[in-house]
Amino acid sequence: MRHKIPPTIALISFLIIMTATIPLGYAYEWSPDMRLTWNAETDWMPSIAQASDGKIWVIWHSYRTGNADIFYKVYDSSKVHPWSSETRLTTDSNADITPSIMRAKDGKIWVVWSTNRNGNYDIYYKVYDGISWSLDENLTTDPNVDELPSIMQASDGNIWVVWSTNRNGNYDIYYKTYNGTAWSSDKPLTFLAADDWDPSIVQTADGDIWVAWVRNNDIYYMTYNGTKWSPDNALVTDPNFDLHPSIMQASNDNIWVVWDSDRISEQDDIYWKVYDNQTRRWSSDTTLTFDGADDLAPSIMQSVDGTIWIAWASWRLGNLDIYYKTDFPPQHLHDIAIISVIHDPNVSVAYQGLNLYIEVVPQNQGVKDEYVQVKCYANSNLIGSQTIHLSAGQLMPINFKWNTLNVIPGTYTIISNASITGETDTDPADNTFIDGEVHVKIPGDVNGDGVVDAFDLFDLNKAYGSDPSNPNWSPDCDFNRDNKVDASDLFGLSKNYGKTI
Question: pTM higher than 0.70, yes or no?
Answer without folding.
Answer: no
